[in-house]
UniProtKB/TrEMBL annotation:
InterPro entries: Leu-rich_rpt, LRR_dom_sf. It comes from Didymodactylos carnosus. Coiled coil: none annotated. Residues 181-212 are annotated as: Disordered. It comes from the Eukaryota. This is B box-type domain-containing protein.
Length: 278
């Protein structure tokens, strides 16, 4: 009967391989196996180092103040400060909220990695596959912290050349996983004012909108029908759903308005849908 040859140690290639690593599936002699585990321990320290550095970045106070996207907003703001001060402030607020929300998600994911790495080190229960997975996850989270894939600042190309409006919004490629609702953003696209010879059909507010409106809402409707303004701020005017519907109807014929601010009013989601209709 022919003798069965023994497999050589994958590292020294001298001694017989009597121990197999479950991670790389290589066979080692006892001495080389111990050396192999020491090498894995060093790799684990690299994972721990990347983990600690990322965690330190997440725990730094006010880290978002120097974010690249915020600097982009600031540069745009400084170039057109007189015209866009209000809009830039709102964009910064929205962006900080989204970055903080993104940071909170990353912190939760890092905590899960913390527990897995700690358990693996304490139990001596890890191999190459675990180290590679942990390192890749940390690098992915680090890249996401620096350059979020679901947040961007962009110019609204539909706006007049008078100024390029920028918007802050969040992409929802991970919506199902994270469970966050989708945000809707809409803007008013400017059109050319009516020609001097064009005759516009006019009627009273009560004729066009039979639903009873407040005096403040009637003033807003008349303002929209006058075609003499490009920016209108009606924030904190107690506008109701009926008022929102009347404003939406007036916007269909208004040909001069480019920007409408309606924050802090009494408009329900149904009223918002009226304003969002084309």
């Amino acid at each position: 009967m022919a003798a069965t040859s023994k497999a050589q140690c994958a590292k020294c290639e001298k001694n017989s391989g009597i121990l197999t690593c479950d991670g790389c599936l290589e066979k080692f002699c006892r001495r080389c196996f111990n050396d192999h585990r020491q090498d894995l321990s060093k790799e684990l320290e690299n994972v721990v180092y990347e983990h600690d550095m990322l965690k330190q970045q997440l725990e730094m106070p006010n880290a978002n103040d120097s974010h690249r996207l915020l600097k982009q907003v600031d540069k745009w703001k400084n170039g057109s400060i007189d015209k866009i001060h209000r809009l830039a402030g709102q964009c910064r607020t929205d962006l900080v909220k989204l970055l903080n929300k993104n940071k909170d998600r990353l912190t939760d994911r890092v905590l899960k990695i913390t527990n897995r790495v700690r358990k693996g080190r304490d139990d001596e229960d890890y191999d190459e596959r675990d180290l590679s997975k942990w390192m890749n996850e940390l690098k992915e989270l680090k890249d996401e912290l620096i350059e979020p894939s679901n947040v961007r600042v962009e110019e609204d190309k539909q706006q007049s050349s008078w100024i390029q409006k920028i918007r802050v919004h969040e992409d929802f490629r991970d919506q199902a996983k994270d469970g966050y609702p989708k945000l809707q953003f809409s803007s008013l696209s400017p059109t050319k004012p009516p020609e001097a010879e064009t005759q516009l059909k006019t009627s009273s507010v009560s004729e066009a909108y039979p639903t009873k409106l407040s005096s403040e809402e009637n003033k807003i409707i008349e303002k929209l029908r006058s075609h003499d303004t490009t920016i209108l701020d009606v924030g904190s005017k107690n506008i109701s759903d009926a008022g929102a519907k009347a404003i939406a109807e007036a916007l269909k014929t208004n040909q001069t308005l480019t920007t409408l601010y309606m924050q802090e009013n009494n408009i329900s989601p149904d009223g918002v849908k009226q304003l969002q209709k084309p």
